[in-house]
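Pilot study result, target chain (426 residues):
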Amino acid sequence: MTADVAYVVFGASLLLAIILPDLLNRWAISAPMVLVGIGMLIGLTPLPDGMPLDPQENRAAIEHVAGLVVIVALMGVGLAIDRPLSLLDPKTWRRWSPTWRLLAIGMPLCIAAVALFGWVAGLAPAVAILLGAALAPTDPVLASDVQVAGPQTDDHEVDESDELRFTLTSEAGLNDGLAFPFVYLAIMIATEDAVSHWALEWVGFYLIGKVVIGVLAGIVVGKLLAFIAFRSSNRSLRVAERGESLLALAALIAAYGVGEIVGGYGFLSVFVCALSFRSAERSHDYHAAMHEVAERLERLLTLFVLLILGIALTRGLLDALDWRGVVIGLGLILVVRPLAGVLALTSWPRRTSGSTELTRPQRWAAAFFGVRGIGSVYYLAYAGGESELLAQDWLWSTVAFTIVASVLIHGILATPVMARIDPARG
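Predicted structure:
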């Protein structure tokens, strides 16, 4: 029965992944909203009996599926970004300045605020920090309505009117990996001795070392694959000439695997690999073909996961939710993230020449659309495998509630807000 139900659910996800995006294109309603709603309705029927919905019993499977969805999304996001970024060119770094501010100021503020409230509300320090870390990143999976559409391959100069979408896209690509040090902080507090025994290790290795290793691994894999695809002396290896777009899948799997094997953050490796690959032959149509493969796979996996999430919601996933979870979820979406984002993006009196600025409406929109999603599920499942303290039902209920609230609130507002800020592209 379980296998038959899985076929039905997967088939329904595939069908909806094909028809929903165009069907809902002009409405103030998103495909994730519809999928969660359909899943909840299915959950009220006897159909899914026997499906593996309990996060405690199926933590490993949830971790692997959620991680796959995230790395596919990260590859698509990296390939979609047209704006160059070079380690050796300060001018390119300045054009990413809103992204750096959201990452360096906005995300730590969100983590700290959620962790502080959780601690005051009676959570153990490790649990409070994990909740803040899991809920802090803007999700690259569910934020497609407010991100750049895809790679432009006509040698155009980046349109500065895309600044809002670029900021949200680049932030979503980077902050999944950059939240990992704080997940490790929660794990170490829960499993290790006194903080003084491992504090320097956390700063030196988990906060700095693994980030640097992950970035370097992504650069190496991206440049190597780009050389093979575009410039190899062996014609059979120059897959760009044949338009073999499945290289996108090989790239994301290889980048993640290499990043993890050498001790870095695999999420960062995948995104940086995509950026590095994108920098080669920037105007080649092959980038658009690869992005389409990643986007289609991401759409299918995302809607499948959301359908399962909707079923789980009406099958007991929210049973442990209490007022603390509701306050944290809604407070993060409606108060903490917007205020932290605006503070991070506020213009400084003296700006470096060449840095990019958002208009006031763009700043508020970038601050507000901090979509929560599948990445939060991955972090929670990962940490739960390291410590029983971090595998509480209450954490799953709170994260699930926050994701659904984000899907509803951001899904309803994305189309009208983006249309108002940028009528030509909304």
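One observation from the pilot: The radius of gyration is 21 Å. A full batch analysis is planned for the follow-on phase.
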